[in-house]
Amino acid sequence: MSFQVGQVVGDYQVEGVLGRGGMGALYKVRNRISQRLDAMKVLLPSVRSSSADITSRFEREIRVHASLRHPNIAELYTAFQLDDQLLMVMELVEGPTLESLLAHAPLPVELSVGIVSQVLSALGYAHRQGVIHRDIKPTNIVLSRGGAVKLIDFGIALAEFNPRMTQTGMVLGSLAYMAPEQLTGLNADARADLYSVGITLYQAVTGRRAIEGANEYEMMNAHVHQQPIPPVQHNPAISQELSAAIVKSLAKNPAHRFQTAEDFRQALSGYMPTSSSAWPQLAASSSETGMHERVATMLPVEKLPSSSRFHSAALAVLNRNLAQYVGPIARHLVMKESRDAPNLDALCQAVASQIAKDSDRAAFLQACRAEFGAETRTVMAPIQTSAPTPPTPTAVTQASMDPAWIDRLKKDLAVQIGPMARVVVDRAAKKASGPNELLATVAAEISSPEERARFLARHRTH
């Protein structure tokens, strides 16, 4: 069951829903005694009854979170059971996530460093308590209305008092921000968190991720093997020294990174916001909307290339407005449509068709009309959108192969190359004409000729 607004749950009254997923829900609640507004995280009964692992992880999150007290970590207040539900009550952090701020454009360098410095302060403390977060990413970094950065979601944190949490070959975390040693199944320590912080800082100052890939396999492979482009090459406002510090945090070998959060934070100290910079301006915002607006005024005008029809400044404004509704893909959409649109009116209409909600689309078109005036005089005309054509089913070659054999292949390959074996086999199976071609393709991922030969011998079908 889910709670309804106004419902009383123990000593708390539900004020609203903050988020909901397949495993649980997060509510805004009011303590009926103290009248304080808190956040309540609930694990759904169906999940508790069907997955002992998820239940154990939630209980572990409660114990780990309860051991931490730091101004940059959202505080856990209490946890309790009510009937067949497990609930956790924590500090309510009202404000945007770093991810939502980055949907518009890269942040100013000083602002980015100020945010990450507070994250490193929280991590330095957690690491000294023997806790590794293991899921540092922009969605888990929240900027509170008071200006303090709060690190949230210790759901997959690893504590020294429970070092056996992760099974061999098991990957937990968010792929785009995970350290190479996490992906290859090696024992990851606190330096894996620092890698994730580096990926996050890189994205904050450049507007793009240091490691990218068209699919899971490519991204995993890039984390392990690909050297990121120094961020200064994407953003000249970044100094060579800061760029080098970010690159150091992204070293493939943990021994070549900063060894502690304090070391990383010290390397960033020269780029921290001053009292007259953007940081206190941001902290002064009294609401999430106000914070977004203040961040927007701090952002430099993004320099999109001009075309024969449109000036770069017009494209930048269009990109910024569209990003509020579709996120970072706005830049790609604007540039793509600008190649064929005959005028600014048509361009606004074209990119507006990518906004799903009618109300949001109308608000975007209204903003276009306000920004560009007479050039978009027909921009408020209704947009006719057709339903997307369903993809044509394609043959799946692995259907003709023995699923048990493919499963054995994945498990055996994982011993050689780590958890990415699953992705490697699935990807190759879609292209292989048969078992022998699949076997040869995945065996090529094994670097040792001797191990490769043994692997082939074990799995040949004839």
TrEMBL record:
Cross-referenced SUPFAM superfamilies: Protein kinase-like (PK-like)
- Name a Pfam family for this protein: DUF8082
PROSITE patterns in the record: PROTEIN_KINASE_DOM, PROTEIN_KINASE_ST
Instruction: Print the keywords alphabetically.
Output: ATP-binding, Kinase, Nucleotide-binding, Serine/threonine-protein kinase, Transferase
- Any one GO molecular-function label of the UniProt entry: protein serine/threonine kinase activity
Entry annotated with the keyword Ion transport = no
Limits of the Protein kinase domain: 12-272
What highest taxon heads this organism's lineage? Bacteria
Residues folding into a coiled coil are none
| InterPro entries xref list | DUF8082, Kinase-like_dom_sf, Prot_kinase_dom, Ser/Thr_kinase_AS
According to its UniProt record, the EC number is: 2.7.11.1
Q: Which PANTHER family match?
A: MITOGEN-ACTIVATED PROTEIN KINASE KINASE KINASE 20-RELATED, SERINE_THREONINE-PROTEIN KINASE NEKL-3
Q: What is this protein called?
A: non-specific serine/threonine protein kinase
Q: Which organism is it from?
A: Paludibaculum fermentans
Higher taxonomy: Bacteria, Pseudomonadati, Acidobacteriota, Terriglobia, Bryobacterales
